[in-house]
Every structure is written in structure tokens, then in C-alpha cells.
Amino acid sequence: MDVTPLASRRAAVDVLMACLDKGQPLDDALAGHRGFTALDPRDRAFVRLLLATTVRHLGEIEGVLSGLITKPLEGANAVGRQVLRLGAAQLMFLGTPPHAAVDTSVRLVEDAGLHHLKGLVNAVLRRISRDGDALLVDRDPARLNTPRWLWESWIHAYGEDTTRAIASAHLQEAPLDITVRRDADHWAGQLEAEKLPTGTLRRKGGGHIAELPGFAEGTWWVQDAAAALPARLLGDVTDKRVADLCAAPGGKTMQLCAAGAQVTAVDISARRMTRLGENLARAGLSANLVTADASKWMPEEKFDAILLDAPCSGTGTLRRHPDIAWLKDEEDVARLTVTQDRLLMRALDMLKPGGTLVYAVCSLQEDEGIERINGVLVRNPQVKRVRVTPAEVPGLEDAITPRGDLRTLPFMWADRGGLDGFYVARLTA
Ligand SMILES: C[S@@+](CC[C@H](N)C(=O)[O-])C[C@H]1O[C@@H](n2cnc3c(N)ncnc32)[C@H](O)[C@@H]1O
């Protein structure tokens, strides 16, 4: 089997093509690539880092490459474009020795039968290895690495300074966050993690998750500190009938089960529901699992509380999924808002009078957050907002909006490694 560094880079080229040229999410393209899954764990980690770095810095890389290439590499030459992007990422951001980055890139275009591009790839990457720092001077990474539609939507929602802070936070990789079922202090020691004010454990070193103590027994699961907040905002759920709508892969279902609720978890995706079932089984937790479209499904009995973690653009998770910035656009957001409205209306139908509904999206787009909730409140006078209180989100008091919703942003807790961008609103009817 070919296990030379070239095999890793070959997998990276294929996956980058699948992602940026064909629109497949990076994680899906990686999971579906045989060459990648056959690599040893160290090489897989390298490929992941190389791809994430290339996509995270795509705007800067393109800025440099466009100054060095006169004719765009398209059609049959498109592979050359991805090879150059990956080569540039290695030289500009990963500190790969120039001979390794340049030679393997030349071999990659040769392998692809693009012999006529060998000279170009060699010359462009040698120029970057020689003058890379100078080529980056006076560039604006936050702006360059953010597509225009996102930048403008954030300027409109948050203003220039906050937009710049959001985009700057996206240049950093996100830390590994963990939710533990109990004994957070004990597990902070076991996992060499910091306990954040909201109770999430944050591990500095990352590491192979499945090999860390407590994972196999389901003592904890991976969940961003912001993603752990919506379920908590349902308050004490002990023995309550709780629906977790759009539940898979089940991070929030596990929180609710662990908190003593009788949970019905609903998700439209059978494949993701299987994962949810496996996650629950690992933790020794159980819930009523329903594979259905939650905007059409109706339970026999209404619920005391509902968590609606609606499908969304995911622009609050760009630190973990930088590809989202380049794969999604305003039309995707507009389509999602229709689904979000339908899900919200059905969730209200399923709620007992006086019950609590928490709506959450891991998106920075106002269309998917406050605008959806404002629409619900205008159309349904019986629905009221229940303000999030500072005591419920210790250390994140600034994330409470003037109206009493929660709006986390990626640069919050910057000194601790940041946070995913979530919008959360709590309603009662
Ligand atoms: C943000 S993810 C949920 C994450 C999950 N709550 C967790 O904490 O692990 C959104 C989920 O919505 C599901 N989904 C999308 N449209 C749906 C619908 N109409 N009904 C039910 N589930 C839906 C997707 O399959 C996906 O699993």
C-alpha cells in the first residue's frame, strides 16, 4: 500500500475538489474517501489539518495565488488549482519545509497527467516559499477569509467592529469541549481539562477522543460550550415529558436524559438517528426515538417542555467547519427559514399550556434567529418570551440580548479559546 506522504496529499486534493468544486461538506467528503480512511491515524490528522487550514485561509491563499497566476486553472486543469491551494497552505501557514511542499505538489500534478502544469506549480510555490511573508503584508485576513455575503450580513446585524471580531475568531481552531454527566471536577482532572463557568470541560490538548478515559463508558460526550446551553434553559426537567426536536446525533438528548427527563427524540434522518441510538447506548441512557419530519409529526400527548434545535446554516460553527462559509449562501438561509417557521409552529402545537419551548440555532444569521422568533411572537399573541437570566449563563452575561434571548459569538471567552455562535430564545404559550 502507498503510505508515502504523497498518499495523504493525494487524498487531500480529492477531498478539496469534492468540497470546493462539487459542494460536498468537508467532513462528508473525508468520511467517504477510501484513500483517506486507509491512512494511518497520524497521516489522517495531517490531512484534516491541511484541509481545514486551506479552507480557513482560502481568501488569503487566493489573494496570493491570483497575483502569481495569469490564467485561471479551470476544466481539466482544476486539479492544479487545488494542488496550488494546498501547497500554498503548507508554505504560508503550516511551516512545511519548502522542498517537501513544492516537490510533492509537482508530483501531484504529474500524477494527474497534467505534465504541462509542473513548471507553473514549481515556479508559483517557490515564489511563495521565498516571498510568502511579503506577499501577505497589508492583507486583511479577517475580511479576505469571509465571503462577501456573510461579511455584509454581519455588518448589517452587528456592525463593523463586531463583524471584524467574529471573522478574526474564525482564524483560530476551536478547542475540544466536553459535557460530563456528573462529577465535572473529578473529570476535569482525569481529562486534563479546564472547567468553564457554565460547567463544560475544555481540553487544551485535543487528542484521540475515543481513547480518552470515560469516553467508552459514555461518561461524557463532545459538545461545544455554547451548544450545551439550550438544553439547560429548559430548567429542571426531572420526570417531565420533553421533546427534543431535530435531535440527532443527540448531544442535547443525552443532556436531557441525564437530567432526568422522559425524552422523545425526533429527527428526520434515519442515518443520524442510528448514531443517536448508538450514542445513547454508550452512555446507558434511553429515550423514545422517533424518525419523522418534526414539522408534520404529532404526538398522542402534548409535552411539558420542548427543545427545537432547528436545522440551520451553521455559520456559528465556522471555527470547526470553515467550509460552510464557502458552501452556503443567502438562498440556503432563505430556504432554511421556511423550515424553521414550520418547525416552530408545529412545536407550539405540541406544547402543553404553560409549557416551555426553547428554540436554538448554531447560526450567526439574524434571519434564522431573532427574526424567526419575532415573527412567531407577532403572529401568536398567546406566546410570550421568557427572558434568560444572568444566573443561568454564568460568565456569559454579555451574551444576553436586551430582549432577553441568548446570542453567543465566536470571540466570546476569547482568552479561553472562544465559543460557537448560537442564538437561543425561550418561549411559553
Ligand atoms: C443542528 S442538527 C441537530 C443537533 C442535535 N440537536 C444535537 O444536539 O446533537 C439539526 C438536525 O435536524 C434534523 N432535521 C432537519 N429537518 C428536520 C425535520 N423537518 N424534522 C426533524 N428533523 C429534522 C437533521 O437531520 C439534523 O440532525
Automatic annotation (TrEMBL):
GO MF assignments: methyltransferase activity
The entry's keywords: Methyltransferase, RNA-binding, S-adenosyl-L-methionine, Transferase
Residues at the catalytic site: 362 (nucleophile)
Family annotation (PROSITE patterns): NOL1_NOP2_SUN (PS01153), SAM_MT_RSMB_NOP (PS51686)
Pfam families: Methyltr_RsmB-F, NusB
GO biological process, one term: methylation
Residue ranges annotated for the SAM-dependent MTase RsmB/NOP-type domain, each copy included: 138-429
Residue numbers binding S-adenosyl-L-methionine: 246-252, 267, 293, 309
Keyword Methyltransferase: yes
InterPro entries: MeTrfase_RsmB-F_NOP2_cat, MeTrfase_RsmB-F_NOP2_dom, NusB_RsmB_TIM44, RCMT, RsmB/NOL1/NOP2-like_CS
Family affiliation: Belongs to the class I-like SAM-binding methyltransferase superfamily. RsmB/NOP family.
Protein name, as recorded: Methyltransferase domain-containing protein
